[in-house]
Design brief:
Strand content: 15-25%
Mean pLDDT: 94
Number of strands: 28
Structural class: alpha/beta
Oligomer: single chain
Distance between the termini: 29 Å
Low-confidence stretches: 1-15, 18-33
CATH class of the largest domain: Alpha Beta
Number of helices: 22
């Protein structure tokens, strides 16, 4: 909940809307602002393998990038969430792409990017991500960075043959001279940067295999002497000493690491334990995230009790390394060997947020005073550890971080636009993540207008598009709606809902039932909150784009007592509805008669293709009549506003059949026949014109 000072009606927020309408880089968060979430910092593992590495071309091929594994990943079981599709395939070595990642991470409350850093006796691998990407990003001062020396052998783990020896790319060898050389490089290239992460005034530097370093250098005392020599080099460069961090899966070597000069420990991640496919909480090669989360909590407690060094609790977002496996190998894998490992399922944003909160609480209560929580990972896509926005869950994991750790500017919500691939900012909602159901996607964000003259205010409800399979409530259309409503005494709500994949996983038939009825239930919640949120239930409008526009039309027609086939408890009659490039029918025969090249909509009714859906239409006719806006349209429906960029054309197949204005023309014809007020807006700039008409209708 936000204080009234953050409401849209205040002059400062109106100005803020205008400011945020510019490109994301035009807004700079206050450099000296404290985060609103306590003193525990959030460090995020950054895996910089998302570009074509020249040195790896000798092992793979010119232009090879690990994204190829992500894109070609296959499902291993019915509900397996592969392939994962990022909002954007950002290049880790492109500063323009990394600028967006920095803006997104900093806006979500991430304090530090912990870069995986590879050094092999002077040969470096993947340093381009840090040196060409992050360090050349114009906004890199907005977030701190640090290194984790990945001092392990660099093997080809990218689709290796199952049960066969891995090809060695680079061997990890340690010597005093080479370690000093590596530190000289870090001093001149990284440690001297003003935004390099410092802990208690010291330079944070993590070692992935600390015991390998100790062993190769002849023991803890030799390492301690080497660390002292490195600190002298640091002093010569006018830099503070190093805070050495060891990556450790348990406390067994903690005493020796302490003698060697390590100051703290953490773990890189906690994947499923090795063992038989049906052991350690696994069944058939699958582990529930709730079980993995319990392993995390026990691990933190064990390290706190039995480790003489401070331990930073780690939170693993998920685990699924199947994209790195040869896809033809049958799952589950009888022998557990990396990357042929179990898959963690049900790592929902809610469960991730709960584990985050527990990690933060553990750090706050630990007498050794851990200074940070480590999260794996920003972008370890092919191990299934990712908080970066992905098609199915969008911004949900970053939102979980924001709610748990706070941000430097609580008045702002930062997001990555699914369509434009731009980082955008909007005013933070007055009420966020308000649930209307048990699923993590069943929530509403609400921006309350306080300048309604003491009277309940009209409310514009936005439903995002994305074929009911992708996107988030925050997108360019919501931003435009917020800007239009700012200062005009209109509440704004944005709805998230279950997607078709969520419905199929839950056995909901037809799948479209979930997104459509969810959106209607969200409006029922808004009505339930009418007094608290200052909502005039007689002036609620719904508007959306594409599939979100179809949802809006469904709600408008279903809210009409004459047209309702499904009764949604608490759903009022809607005042007005808007559909931008909306589908107005979900009847395959009708759609094909209007648009001869249409091949969209079958997934909403569980069919494998449009042809299958059309051929079996009679079997689903009852469902079609329940959910198709055209079938539900009856006399007495609320005002409809439709918008499309090009004129209808019934003679030639449209270039974009999914968003053809033929949908709008035929719906308007039916509205005219029934005496339902309907406005069809055609041409460039149609959406702002739609918003003007929609807002006028709400205020009548």
């Amino acid at each position: 909940m936000k204080n009234a000072i953050f409401s849209l009606i205040k002059p400062s927020i109106i100005a803020l809307c205008a400011l945020l309408s510019a490109h994301a880089s035009a807004y700079e968060p206050p450099k000296d602002a404290a985060k609103k979430g306590g003193n525990i910092e959030l460090a995020m593992v950054y895996y910089p393998h998302w570009f074509a590495s020249p040195i790896e071309a000798q092992f793979k091929s010119d232009g090879w990038c690990e994204y190829s594994l992500l894109k070609s990943a296959k499902k291993k079981f019915e509900t397996h969430r592969q392939p994962k599709i990022p909002y954007a395939y950002f290049d880790s070595a492109n500063p323009k792409d990394v600028e967006k990642e920095i803006a997104l991470a900093a806006g979500a409350g991430v304090d530090v990017f912990l870069y995986c850093w590879y050094w092999y006796e002077g040969v470096m691998n993947l340093q381009e991500g840090l040196e060409k990407g992050f360090l050349k990003a114009g906004n890199n001062s907005d977030i701190k960075f640090a290194l984790m020396w990945a001092n392990h052998d660099r093997n080809d783990q990218f689709r290796p043959e199952y049960r066969k020896p891995r090809k060695l790319w680079f061997a990890a060898k340690h010597s005093e001279a080479d370690t000093l050389k590596a530190m000289d490089y870090c001093i001149s290239h990284y440690f001297n940067k003003p935004n390099y992460w410092r802990v208690g005034g010291k330079i944070y530097f993590a070692v992935y295999q600390p015991m390998r370093l100790v062993k190769d250098l002849g023991g803890a005392e030799n390492v301690r002497r080497l660390f002292a020599a490195i600190d002298r080099k640091m002093a010569q460069a006018s830099l503070p000493p190093i805070h050495w961090v060891g990556i450790a899966s348990g406390p067994q070597h903690a005493e020796e690491l302490k003698r060697a000069g390590f100051s703290s420990l953490t773990d890189y991640n906690l994947p499923p334990p090795h063992g038989d496919i049906d052991s350690d909480g696994k069944k058939g090669g699958i582990m529930q995230y709730s079980h993995l989360a319990d392993l995390h909590r026990r691990h933190w407690a064990n390290m706190t009790r039995n480790c003489p060094l401070v331990n930073l609790p780690v939170v693993t977002q998920g685990w699924d390394s199947t994209p790195r496996c040869v896809q033809s190998v049958k799952f589950p894998y009888p022998v557990d060997e990396y990357p042929y490992r179990p898959v963690v399922v049900e790592n929902t944003p809610d469960k991730f947020e709960s584990l985050l909160a527990d990690a933060k609480k553990h750090a706050e209560q630990d007498a050794k005073k851990p200074f940070a929580v480590l999260v794996n990972a920003w972008n370890e896509w092919t191990e299934g550890c990712v908080v970066f926005p992905e098609r199915r869950d969008g911004m949900a994991y970053l939102d979980a971080i924001s709610r748990t750790f706070g941000t430097r500017n609580p008045e702002i919500k930062t997001y990555l636009d699914f369509y434009t691939k731009r980082v955008e900012r909007i005013p933070a909602p007055t009420y966020s993540n308000v649930r209307y159901g048990p699923h993590h996607k069943q929530y509403v964000n609400f921006w309350k207008a306080e300048n309604a003259g003491g009277k309940p205010a009209p409310t514009a409800v936005y439903i995002h598009g994305g074929s009911w399979i992708e996107n988030s409530p925050e997108d360019s259309r919501l931003k435009a709606l917020l800007e239009k409503c700012a200062g005009r005494g209109i509440n704004v709500a944005a709805v998230e809902y279950r997607f078709l994949d969520d419905a199929r996983d839950a056995g909901i038939t037809p799948p479209v039932k979930a997104p459509l009825e969810d959106a209607a239930s969200a409006i029922a919640l808004i009505c339930k909150k009418a007094e608290e949120w200052n909502v005039d239930v007689s002036r609620i409008g719904v508007i959306g784009g594409s599939a979100g526009g179809c949802s809006s039309l469904y709600i408008a027609c279903a809210s009409n007592p004459e047209g309702a086939s499904v009764k949604i408890p608490g759903l009022p009659k809607i005042k007005a509805a808007g559909g931008a490039i909306a589908q107005t029918s979900l009847d395959p025969a009708q759609m094909r008669s209007w648009i001869p090249n249409i091949a969209y909509g079958h997934a909403a009714f569980g069919a494998r293709s449009f042809g299958e859906w059309l051929g079996g239409r009679e079997k689903t006719l009852g469902q079609i009549e329940t959910y198709s806006p055209y079938a539900l349209l009856k006399k007495g429906a609320p005002k409809i506003i439709l918008g499309y960029p090009v004129e209808p054309d019934f003679k030639n197949p449209p270039k974009d059949p999914v968003h053809s204005s033929n949908f709008g023309a035929m719906f308007k014809r039916r509205c005219d026949e029934l005496g339902v007020p309907c406005e069809l807006i055609i041409g460039s700039g149609y959406y702002p014109k739609m918003l003007d008409s929609f807002i006028c209708a709400l205020k009548e």
